[in-house]
Amino acid sequence: MEFFIKDLNSADYEGLIYPLFYEDNGEDICDCVKSKVQKLKGSDKFKGECGEIFCIVEETEDKLQYTLLLGLGKKEELTSEGIRIAYSKALKKAKELKLSMIAVKMFNSEKICVKRRIKAIYEGMVLGDYKFDKYISDKKESSVKSIFIKAIKDEDVNKAQEALDEIDILTSSVIEARNLVNEPANILYPKELAKRAEKIGEEYGFEVDIYGKDKIEELGMHSFLEVAKGSSKSPKLIVMRYIGDVENKGDILGLVGKGLTYDSGGYSIKPTDGMVMMKSDMGGAAAVIGAMASISKMKLKTNVIAVVASCENMISEKAYKPGDIISSMAGKTIEVLNTDAEGRLTLIDAVHYIIEKEHVSKVIDLATLTGAVLVALGDTTTGVVTNNKDFYKELQNASELSGEKVWELPSFDEYKKLIKSDIADYKNIGGRNAGTITAGLFIGEFVQNKPWLHLDIAGTAWSEKDNGYLSKGGTGAGVRTLYYLAKERCE
Ligand code: BES
Ligand code: ZN
Ligand code: ZN
């Protein structure tokens, strides 16, 4: 599917997506649809609610011409997220009608600048078009091939093209992340994840180093190795570097992604239903790989290093067990009370590594860490634990731009007490209550004094069904927010 900024004549396309606000009553509307809109507005068939669609079919000399009226709701209530969702619905309708060349008429908005309007339209349509169909023999190709954006003011054409170029890179990075998450665990295990990261690095322009078991042992990443040792698939430490601001090499944003290519729960085994989607337990890794892709391809003037400690959490005679006391790269000891709380054990070593060996100035970790975050915030909002208000503000700004919702959870000292052990420095679970907070704070014990954000994406990295521009399966959560956060750092 390709996008162009071009004012085509109606004879040159099959379908037109015509946006209408709730309050539009026909005055500023083109003659082509004016009388129809006026009649429709008086009926309850089309009100112009956000995402509402009404299809008009007309016969011209040689073909049928489709106009999809697309409601955008009340003008002052319009958001970029509303645009994404509305246009994802319009694209689905165009596919249903098997349209191939469609035009999209641009609309005016005082609230949302032309760049953001274009980006939201593109995201809605391209991400809404995504389907993981790699393993389906009889693939159904999308009918929509070209989309022409019409009615861009002359003075806005350059800005619009710039926005298209940027959002093209950003959405393809999100799709890379979705593909990684959707790949099953029999195909994508640590070695394969590392290979894919390498390939994406080559294509988008960041450097990738992959360390195997010997190097991980040499580094003393004991906690990571304990989780990995139950699997016949060996662990990989994936390090990705992008230095786009050579003069400020001391200022590096560190990203850490949870990279469990499968989480059976280990001896604290999961029930089957909970296990099926555990191929997605590397959603954090996918997010940081996707973010590296967009940051490097856009050549942002900033430095970012990302680390993924990738392994599988399995059962075998070699696996770690509830009751074990293990060590970590930082030298602190941990009493393992539940082998299903494995993500944090891999993350503490990854965080320690990125601070000690890659010398990053700030750390963001992303992880499908707790089922508790779904209970607390559902599948629309990422839970955040942080030690730094200013850094959280940066995340909030980036989240405004991406539309990916975040919410900070409290991190009072009382919660920290819950992860202290009687027989080791820490225990790996804090009890039934406040599971997302104690999991986050466990990682926080290893960030030294660096500004740190922990994003629990267990609810947002996976969607149970197609929903607006999110497709069933991996969502690519985090990629766009991390990109904007890195971009804001250079401005
Ligand atoms: N990978 C899971 C968390 C998860 C749950 C991700 C649901 C996506 C959807 C994690 O490793 C886990 O099993 N966490 C446990 C922690 C508990 C043992 C303290 C959980 O949430 O049940
Ligand atoms: Zn687990
Ligand atoms: Zn897990």
UniProtKB/TrEMBL annotation:
GO cellular component: cytoplasm
Protein name in UniProt: Probable cytosol aminopeptidase
InterPro entries attached to this UniProt entry: Leucine_aapep/pepB, Macro_dom-like, Peptidase_M17_C, Peptidase_M17_leu_NH2_pept, Peptidase_M17_N
Family, per entry: Belongs to the peptidase M17 family.
Annotated GO MF terms: manganese ion binding; metalloaminopeptidase activity
Domain Cytosol aminopeptidase as annotated: residue spans: 338-345
Cofactor names: Mn(2+)
Keyword tags: Aminopeptidase, Cytoplasm, Hydrolase, Manganese, Metal-binding, Protease
Cofactor, how bound (note): Binds 2 manganese ions per subunit.
Main location: cytoplasm
Described purpose of this protein according to its UniProt entry: Presumably involved in the processing and regular turnover of intracellular proteins. Catalyzes the removal of unsubstituted N-terminal amino acids from various peptides.
Reaction catalysis annotation: Release of an N-terminal amino acid, preferentially leucine, but not glutamic or aspartic acids; Release of an N-terminal amino acid, Xaa-|-Yaa-, in which Xaa is preferably Leu, but may be other amino acids including Pro although not Arg or Lys, and Yaa may be Pro. Amino acid amides and methyl esters are also readily hydrolyzed, but rates on arylamides are exceedingly low
Cellular location(s): Cytoplasm
Active site positions, chain numbering: K270, R344
Residue sites binding Mn(2+) 2 per the record: K258, D263, D281, E342
Enzyme Commission numbers on file: 3.4.11.1, 3.4.11.10
Residues the entry annotates as binding Mn(2+) 1: D263, D340, E342
Biological processes annotated in GO: proteolysis
